[in-house]
Amino acid sequence: AIAKVAEENRDDTQALDLLVHALNDSVADVRSEAAAVLGNLKYQPAIPALIKLLEHSEGETRKSAALSLMKIGDLDSLVPLQTALERESDLGVKKAIALGIALLQKQTASD
């Protein structure tokens, strides 16, 4: 519900802040959904929290964080993504991180 409000009212910082807070939820689906919405909205203030999630114990959370960082497109995320790729052991998560890196590098080349 909060995600829907945030998507419909992109200037509602309270809803966006609730989504950033939801990145720390104990339920993996909540974290993943919050990360996806923040990425779709390209919400830059979420970047530090998303970078922190690259170290989460659950693979789906790390994958969601990487894809969200890719969608936000901030080049400062490149180094944390590269670091995460080096330590990642889950193949599916590794592919998501590599995709994020490739798209950010492509963006750098076109800038």
What's the Cα radius of gyration? 13 Å
Overall mean confidence score, pLDDT:
90
Number of helices: 7
By DSSP, the count of extended strands is 0
Percent range for β-strand residues: under 5%
Distance between the termini: 36 Å
Order of helices and strands: HHHHHHH
Main beta-sheet strand count, sense and barrel state: none
Shape annotation: globular
Indicate the structural class.
mainly alpha
Roughly what percent helix?
Answer: over 70%
In terms of quaternary structure, what is this?
single chain
Report low-confidence residues grouped into runs of 5 or more. Answer: none
Name some characteristics of this structure.
single chain; 111 residues; mainly alpha; globular
Description:
The chain is mainly α and 111 residues long. The chain is built from seven helices and no strands. The longest helix has 20 residues, at 91-110. It is globular. The model has no long low-confidence stretch (mean pLDDT 90).
Helix-strand layout with pairing:
Elements: H1 2-8, H2 13-22, H3 28-40, H4 47-53, H5 59-72, H6 78-87, H7 91-110
Helix pairs in contact: 1-2, 2-3, 3-5, 4-5, 5-7, 6-7
